[in-house]
Amino acid sequence: MAIAIDSIPQAAAIPVRKGRLCLVTSRSGKRWIIPKGCMEPGKSTGEIALQEAWEEAGLTGVLDKHPVGSYVYEKLGAQHHVTVFLMRVTDECEEYPERSQRERAWLTPAQALDQVEEQGLKEVLRVAIKERKELRG
Fold it and tell me: What is the reported pTM?
């Protein structure tokens, strides 16, 4: 898939703990996604991925050094390009900024693949599962 020059850059985290992946609901509550958000001036993709994991899922952790992949999706007529990192979760909090707006779920890799509808994200999840030994069962 070609990436448009004017696509909106985003960063995301796939939180991983004890062989499970954490997904969150979209704000509408209709879809399962990973924590992600738009880039901000002066912040790296890694910093945004960590920030979004905290804001949307209440998770902190350590990112892999390099992204596991990226994908493109359309929202409100604009193309978004998401750089995705695997994140080893070190702490999970019950109170976090978007707790009232989203659900959080810890799923097996197979369950996560079944819940995610976005094809680009599904492909990145498949790569992450192959790369992370603890996710292969």
Answer: 0.93
